[in-house]
Here is the input.
Amino acid sequence: MNVSIKYRIGKSMGFQVLTIALSAACVAPLIFILIYILKAGLTKINWHFITNLPKPVGESGGGIANALLGSVIIIGCASAMAIPAGIACGIYLSENKKSKLAYWSRLCIDILQGIPSIVIGIIAYFWFVKPLGSFSALSGSVALAIMMLPIIVRSTEETLLLLPDSLREAAYALGMPFHRVILKVIVPCGFSGILSGVMLSVARITGETAPLLFTAFGNPYLSTNIFKPMQSLPLLIFNYATSPYNDWHDLAWGASSILLLWVLLLNIFTKIITRKWKIQL
Amino acid sequence: MENTIVKSVNYNSYFGENHVVKNVNIEIPRNNVIAVMGPSGCGKTTFLRGINRMHELIPGASAKGQILLNGEDVMEMHPIFVRLKIGMVFQRPNPFPNLSIYDNVIAGYKLNGIKLPKAERDKIVEHSLTRVALWNEVKDSLNKKGTFLSGGQQQRLCIARAVAMEPEVLLFDEPTSALDPISTSTVEELFHELKKNYTLIIVTHNMQQAARVSDKTAFFYMGELVEYDDTKQMFTNPKDTRTQNYITGRFS
Here is the structure.
């Protein structure tokens, strides 16, 4: 009996050690990536780096101002398109759980989530770049907005489904019309969840390169015209890292670090907001 | 009866194919407390939710017949208007968790976009909270969240929220079943005060409560209104054997 119990305790311990070891293995890549990129890129980042344009080959120095501004504009446009539509769709799905339209929308959203980003890029190319006759930041934004949609829709839907029905009933019993129930009660109560979905979707698309390759295209100069090609961080990294010049490699490392910090901060910020604004039900 | 405020005529309600409330005819006099009792699943809550048309919010639910409020059929009115006239308090206290105590009381105005001067709002809040005997307990913490209160206080806050709209009828769906005995007795005492200004319809599966608080009692069984009479009469001398069996505890 003693032997069998010892064996069982041993097995239990072994399993615990295994789960801990494998969890550590999951965290390790992130830590290595962080260390590696920050070590190579952090030293390149300074005021000059973020406020200047890239220099031509042969001249040292230069910065990534165009890519930084480009990323902000492209993501801003994508958010302006995806956030209202995504939240509205999430509200619809949570309020109409059983309708046919909800079923099909949910299915489509799930499939949309699985479409490779490069395919979305091609679609945006055929929809916008070809008819308009030029690469443009706007077409890149459309591609990114399509990628944001499923994340926002799903997180909105799931957040709102968690709200108890008693809340809706309380609002309806006061004679509130549907739109006020949604806008004044349901959305404010689920605000932190919706916001965290939005921020995660922004973090998700910040580093997307493939959909921008043949839409926003890239631009070595500073541009704020969304109907013209525009540089963005992932494009800059892609182009400069594959170039044969050391100066450009440095720019790519610096840009990578900024991209990484951006995503990291967004994630941390999301966590803080979700915790702070969470409404106690 | 001139004094009738709510009257149902051949009222039926359904969940899909399921016939839940069967041909109910009832006349409810003004400024009375009416208890609606019956075993679980007898349709009493469904009937109550039909009166202010909350029933139809459930997918697949439908209703037939008439519910008359002061002689006007609520089925013909817009549900929003009906619910302003007929307030409702639920089984579990459900204050809006994103609003302060003050805003919870005024929620019916604030969230409906009805603008009032601050003085008037203050008056409504104080008046409503006084009505539900909560003013003295919360007057110094009006800016705290409604969920900060205890369960019994939250329920009184919800009553204040309904009272603030100055409805004619107040519906209570097992208002004390989630409360402790002390909070329950506080809420029950309120009913006596509230009936001076409103007509109260209270669903309860607690017979003692029905006997304590109501003027008239309706007994529902299997979706039918079996008996409807003065509470005293009903509890001392029930006419129907099913009522008798229920009151004497032969089934619940």
Remarks:
- The longest strand of chain B covers residues 4-15.
- The longest helix of chain B spans residues 118-131.
- The domain at 4-247 of chain B is CATH 3.40.50.300 (Rossmann fold).
